[in-house]
Design goal:
- The complex is a heterodimer.
- Chain A is α/β, with parallel strands linked by helices.
- Chain A is built from eight helices and ten strands.
- In chain A, the strands form two sheets. Chain A has a six-stranded mixed sheet with strand order 6-7-8-3-9-10, with helices on both faces. Chain A has a four-stranded antiparallel sheet with strand order 2-1-4-5, covered by helices on one side.
- The longest helix of chain A is centred in the last third of the chain and has 16 residues.
- Chain A is globular and about 50 Å long.
- By secondary structure, chain B is mostly helical.
- Chain B contains 15 helices and four strands.
- In chain B, helix 10 packs parallel to helix 15 and helix 14 runs antiparallel to helix 15.
- Chain B starts with a helix and ends with a helix.
- Classes of the chains: A alpha/beta, B mainly alpha.
- At the A-B interface, strand 6 and helix 2 of A face helix 1 and helix 8 of B.
């Protein structure tokens, strides 16, 4: 399963993270080409979030290394080209949707015009136009999650790390999200999404399956189904899990 | 360091407060309440302390020194003479007055004996003739529960006695007089001493509380993770916080200064701007300390536990309420490690002594060092990743 590496991509080489002797991520090797929609799937505690946190510089790897856009992690030079959406609805609930977006735009040194344009685009994508001036604390869980997604996309990043972006989002809007992700991909953006909705993983170009801190399988959804001779990714995951043992 | 990013963080913090009307109310009303309550409560001497006078002096009223002393005492606002008893009633007036003191109905009973004026005049004549005689005395039967009140009553009585002695009829004055010449604070009252302390205390309480709660929330809500994955640096986050909460401390000080001037007519002899600069630097330092301690708290509940640990030593040992010289010598060195000590000292020097930056540079330097170290450590703490 070797893929040719594009100049703008993510490489992980034996990336490992231990917490007090407990290995959360073990010897992860991974390469993600530019313009890929990459789905990282696996049960809770499989190391998905820890992997992403190491890549965005929030956790220090115990061993191994990773590069993003050719720069060694934790990146500095290219940090404005990536974005991270945490699993929790990490937005300021005491600010309005607009103020949240404006704050993140400020952190990316965006000028007023490009912010205004980008804000309108994202508000319409997340269906939050009407709630622009509402305090986040007054929004429903789903709306908060959409605000969080809009915040992570405000600066039009090249690489997006989205940790469970569709949790709490109603099915109709979830379809909209995935369409938006496909559009972004078509524009050459690289998106790394963690999800536990296996049907969603079907929409990814490449799926990486994680279990107990290790990457147990990686490939296009079709390849994964074919190699396990299973009808869906959930069954495929179970088959790979069985092969790799406890 | 990029200003736009620092300001984005600062604006976020200030906007969060703006939407929370109750917190805004708290920020303005709390210092107002502090200065008003403390100002009125501590501002004056005790007044209207109820006393009885028992006057058994047999000298006719127009010549009686007891009567003169009583009439002078009645002009003083500290004491309120509820009743003047003489020997005319059916019961013993001394017993009655003493019982009133014992029952805590009155604070004291001033008792002039039958021969008071006669003895006093005899003593005066002896002084003039250079012969020896015992002084005339009268008894002040007093409730000693509160030493301050005892002191106040006795001082007032001494003043009245002095006044009667120097009156034209007697013309006796002390051969030795201590003349106070105040270098500063000629018209200073307790509130003038107190207002600078209150400003420091209010700035400390609020910046500390707001910063630690906000920052712990930032950690628990994962917004910090999100911030740290953007181009904003740890130093810029810390600076953004410092600006926001330093400003809050500043606004509070303006509320306190305005209230102190309008309600208590305090006089500010030095530069108000210099006072505000001191508060700002101190507020930034306190914010840094809160930021640093926030990393030790897992949630808001744990964060608030730091509050008394920081607050009590500062209140008791920094000279806000009483001079540092009144702190027992054993623990006095601790005062030197409390930043509020320097803030209050500097503000008092500016407000009461009218000193400029040239005189308070040391205090300001210590506060600036405190702020710098706290901010640097906070930024370093944020940089350390798990």
């Amino acid at each position: 399963m070797t893929r040719e590496l594009e100049p703008h991509s993510i490489h992980l080489k034996k990336l490992t993270k231990d917490f007090d002797g407990l290995t959360a991520v073990s010897n992860l090797d991974m390469s993600i080409s530019k313009g890929t929609l990459y789905g990282l799937i696996g049960p809770n505690g499989s190391g998905k979030t820890t992997t992403i946190k190491m890549l965005v510089g929030l956790l220090k790897a115990t061993s191994g290394e990773a590069t993003i856009l050719g720069e060694k992690v934790p990146i500095k030079k290219n940090i404005a080209k990536i974005s991270y959406m945490p699993q929790e609805t990490a937005v300021y609930s005491e600010l309005t949707v607009h103020e949240n977006l404006e704050m993140f735009a400020g952190l990316y040194s965006m000028d007023k015009e490009s912010f205004a344009r980008r804000e309108n685009e994202l508000l319409s994508m997340t269906d939050l136009d009407e709630r622009k001036d509402s305090l986040v604390s007054q929004l429903s869980g789903g709306m908060r999650h959409r605000t969080s997604l809009a915040c992570s996309l405000i600066h039009d990043p090249e690489i997006m790390f989205l940790d469970e972006p569709t949790v709490g989002v109603d099915p109709e809007l979830r379809v909209g999200f995935w369409k938006y992700f496909s559009d972004l991909k078509a524009k050459g953006k690289t998106i790394i999404i963690t999800t536990h909705y296996m049907d969603e993983a079907n929409r990814c170009d490449i799926v990486g399956m994680m279990r107990m801190g290790r990457l147990i399988a990686e490939g296009t959804p079709k390849e994964l189904l074919k190699s396990t001779n299973t009808p869906d990714l959930e069954s495929a995951f179970l088959a790979f899990a069985k092969r790799t043992g406890p | 360091m990029k200003l736009q990013r620092i300001l984005a963080v600062a604006r976020k913090n200030l906007r969060s407060l703006r939407h929370d009307k109750r917190t805004v109310g708290f920020l303005v009303l709390m210092p107002l309440l502090m200065i008003s309550v403390f100002g009125y409560a501590f501002g004056g001497d005790p007044k209207d302390l109820r006393v009885y006078v028992v006057n058994l002096d047999q000298t006719p009223a127009n010549e009686s020194l007891a009567v003169s002393i009583i009439s002078d005492l009645s002009t003083r606002s500290t004491l309120k003479i509820s009743k003047v008893l003489d020997g005319a009633g059916p019961s013993d007036p001394v017993d009655l007055a003493q019982k009133k003191v014992k029952d805590a109905d009155i604070k004291a009973a001033i008792i002039f004996g039958a021969n008071f004026t006669r003895d006093a005049r005899f003593a005066l004549a002896s002084i003039r003739n250079s012969t020896h005689a015992l002084p005339a005395s009268f008894v002040v039967y007093i409730d000693g529960t509160n030493p301050n009140i005892v002191q106040t009553i006795m001082t007032d009585i001494q003043k009245s006695v002095q006044k009667v002695l120097v009156s034209p009829t007697l013309g006796i004055s002390s051969p030795i007089v201590a003349v106070p010449q105040l270098a500063y604070g000629q018209d200073a009252r307790f509130i003038d001493f107190f207002a600078p302390g209150m400003m420091g205390l209010a700035a400390m309480m609020v910046t500390f509380m707001l910063s630690i709660i906000s920052f712990v929330h930032e950690r628990t809500a994962s917004t910090l993770d999100r911030l740290l994955s953007t181009p904003v640096t740890e130093g810029e986050i810390v600076a953004g916080y410092a600006i926001a909460f330093g400003l809050v401390g500043l606004i509070q000080s303006i509320v306190i200064i305005t209230a102190a001037v309008l309600l208590f007519q305090i006089t500010i002899h030095g530069s108000v701007l210099l006072v505000l600069l001191i508060v700002f630097v101190f507020g930034v330092g306190t914010q840094g300390l809160a930021f640093l301690l926030s990393s030790l708290a897992k949630n808001e509940f744990q964060a608030i536990q730091f509050f008394p640990i920081i607050l009590f030593p500062s209140i008791l040992l920094s000279g806000v309420f009483w001079p540092i010289e009144a702190v027992p010598e054993l623990i006095r060195p601790v005062s030197s490690f409390i930043p509020l000590t320097y803030a209050v000292d500097a503000m008092r020097s500016v407000m009461i002594r009218g000193w400029g930056i040239g005189n308070i540079w040391w205090d300001l330097l210590v506060l600036a060092a405190f702020a710098s170290v706290m901010l640097a450590l906070s930024a370093y703490g944020l940089k350390k990743r798990g």
